[in-house]
Amino acid sequence: MVKRMLSEFESYDLLKQYGVPVPEHAIVKTPAEAGKTAEKIGFPVVMKIHSPQIVHKSDAGGVIVSISSKQAAEEAFDKIVSNAKAYNPDAEIKGVIVEQQAAPGLELIIGGKTDPAFGKVLTFGMGGTLVELMKDVTLRILPITEETIRQMIREIHGYPIIQGYRGSKPRDEETLVQIMWAINCFFAENTHVVEFDINPVRLYESGACIVDARIFVDDEAVEKVAKERPFVPVEYFTPRSIAVIGASSEPKKMGYAVMHNLLHFPGQLYPVNNKRPEVQGLKAYASILEIPNPVDMAVITVPAKHVPSVIEECGQKGVVMAVIITAGFKEMGEGGKALEDRVIEIAKRYGTRIIGPNCLGMIIPPKGIDTTYVHESPKPGNIAFISQSGAIVNTVVDWSIKQDIGFSAVVSVGNQADLNFIDYLRFVERDPKTKGIILYVEEIQDGKTFMKVVSEVAKTKPVVAIKAGSSVKGQAAASSHTGSLSGSYDVYMEAFRESGVIPVHTLSGTFQVAEMLATPKGYPRGKRAVVITNAGGFAVLSSDYAERYGIDLITLPPQVLKELNDLLPEFWNKNNPIDLLGDANEKRFEQTFSVLAKYQDCWDIAFVVGFPNLVIGSEQFANQIIRFSEKTENMIVGTLLGGDSMERGRKILKENGIPIFDELDFTFRVMGRILWQRFR
Ligand code: ADP
Ligand code: MG
Q1: Other CB atoms within 10 Å distance of the CB of residue 82
Q2: How far apart are CA 222 and CA 38, in angstroms?
Q3: E strands within 486-604?
Q4: How far is CA 119 from CA 267, 283, 536, in A?
Q5: What Gene3D superfamilies does the database record attribute to this sequence (predicted)?
Q6: pTM for the full model?
Q7: Which of 107, 306, 520, 672 would disulfide-bridge 127, Cβ 3.0–4.6 Å?
Q8: Ligand at shortest distance from the CA of 67
Q9: From residue 595, how far is each of 125, 538, 565, 604 by CA, in Å?
Q10: How far apart are the first and last CA of the chain?
């Protein structure tokens, strides 16, 4: 990439063409010229160094403001040049810029960068010299609309300052919208502009002016055009016959474990091993070509160097899907990459699709398919899990057994040499067993297509994602570049949000969210909530958590209050969270739920929070929650706090498809995540 920085001068001229207000300016080469030009522009002026090697002019002593006489301008010229030379003796000094001094104003930053996965991104935030400190920035992936720009402006923390804070006059928000729109057009239309940083933009009560601009261009930059491939037929993922190539009888070998996990497969299973006539009790074949019947899928565990010839045979045999578990491909560098390319080329010739290489393959529990070497196959269920890490698949599967979580599909994507996230998403989208989807993402290859596809998938099935790599390691932190203000992780988060994916930060969290959304009621229809509990302490905590995670606790309407007053003890708290008090029995819960169900139009979610006590057992509690849920269209979320005594209730709720948690903070955090994505 041949990236170069345009000078402030060139940047101003470019932006001016798009209608962005820039200060009057000129380049001068001598002190005398500086004096004359300053006089012509009108005092006060600002003078700045003009050198391709000096990115941050202030750091080099290359900016002098408030120059108010001809003589001062002449002196400033010499000062700036000598400072710059001292700062970087090798810097080529092309002259000094003299520019009109803009009046002080609210300093904002507008920036742009090109993300390797998602392409061009526009950023906006509070600017000036404290940008890195404040980190009050927001971003959007292009293309965007003017309405998006308005949202960006409103969502930074500093927005109240733009609106007029504590007696200060409101700023010209409309002009800001126009400038950001102009800058967005400039960025979108100029393919070779890969990054820029306008800091600061000064916003006034009327009008605005930019007083610095850095634009980076790459003449070789090309925009990636997103294009989706045809869907892989669902049948490819549900073979009737499977051959294990490299099947083994030696318990320490990969080919043993894979074979072992496939022994429960109800279709035809053929071990292929050129040294043994029998593997794990089944007749073995020396080559896949010797199997007398058709083979739909091949699972390959032989060493990498043999994989091309094995794939060739699979192709001849008419195998439609090959799962290459073997490692030693692209992840090993150039030699491995060449081998991988060869494998793909051969597979293409025969129309054989490839999962992996360097993966665990896939598990389809409802069909008894497990090509992996996980310790124990997971149970069937309604969650699909697509993971970029094999180790995480192993861990999650192990843990799911203990947690009683089942899967409709588990896929370890490996190197994604052929099939990738997009193909797997399309598969689980069409798979009737899948009700919720979890992604573990490290890096996405083609972000634009991913966004398009995942937003379609998310319309019918909830998609929850965990993204690895939130640390900003390796980012140039020293500059006021927008690149360092918003790392790649932030771009992923924005991409997820925009395409309807719910980002979650912990693995167990992703499962809680996915399970909750996979329940029959799915998503809540809004963020107005009520909390019903028998524990005063948890009522208070619920308010705290609701506020923290952006859940609106409604004010109970007078009619609801009245009806509750009629049935609750005189000293109930008359508020939301509704505290039914520690002596609340089944009947009190039932009556309260009836009132709430009757007025279900005034709320969207009910959080029912219970703790172990002798007045109401966990089973009775669960049954009341189920009846409540039957009486309303709205979402009911249970939180039964406590240890073993509450386990029975939690199990009943789970079996009845009601979201259930055992930790209060978590309940609200999970719901907050969902609401953030849906109703921000
Ligand atoms: P740097 O390369 O260090 O970012 P800038 O061009 O942003 O240099 O100048 C540093 C600071 O000087 C700006 O943040 C702004 O506060 C002030 N400044 C620069 N140019 C002007 C101008 N034309 N009018 C008013 N203030 C300016
Ligand atoms: Mg600047």
Answers
A1: 11
A2: 41
A3: 501-503, 528-533, 552-553, 578-579
A4: 45, 52, 50
A5: ATP-grasp fold, A domain, ATP-grasp fold, B domain, NAD(P)-binding Rossmann-like Domain, Succinyl-CoA synthetase domains
A6: 0.83
A7: 107
A8: 1
A9: 46, 22, 11, 14
A10: 37
Going by C-beta distance under 8 Å and a sequence separation of 6 or more, which residues neighbour residue 525? 604, 633, 634, 635
Bridge-based pairing of strands 528-533 and 605-610 is parallel
Is residue 514 within 8 A of residue 438, CB to CB? The reply is yes
Give the whole-angstrom CA distance, residue 217 versus residue 19: 20
Ligand 1 centre distance from Cα of residue 58 (Å) = 8
* Residues 568, 347: Cα–Cα separation, whole Å: 71
Give the residue from 674, 530, 518, 519 showing the smallest Cα distance to 609. Answer: 530
| Two structure tokens written together for 512 | 């809680």
Write out the residues surrounding ion ligand 2, Cβ under 5 A. 199, 212
pLDDT in tens, 109-165: 999 999 989 999 999 999 877 777 778 999 999 999 999 999 999 999 999 999 998
Q: Which residues line ligand 1 (CB under 6 A)?
A: 23, 46, 48, 56-58, 63, 65, 99, 101-102, 200, 211-212
Name the residue at shortest CA distance from atom 5 of ligand 1: 212
446 CA → ligand 1 middle, Å: 38
Query: Any residues with CB less than 8 A from the CB of 243 and at least 6 apart, and which?
Result: 269, 270, 271, 272, 285, 288, 291, 295, 297, 298, 299, 319
Closest ligand (CA of 100)? 1
Q: Of all protein residues, whose CA lies closest to atom 21 belonging to ligand 1?
A: 211
pLDDT digits (tens, 9 = 90+) for 479-488: 333 334 556 8
- Please state, in angstroms and rounded to a whole number, the distance separating the CA atoms of residues 474 and 492: 17
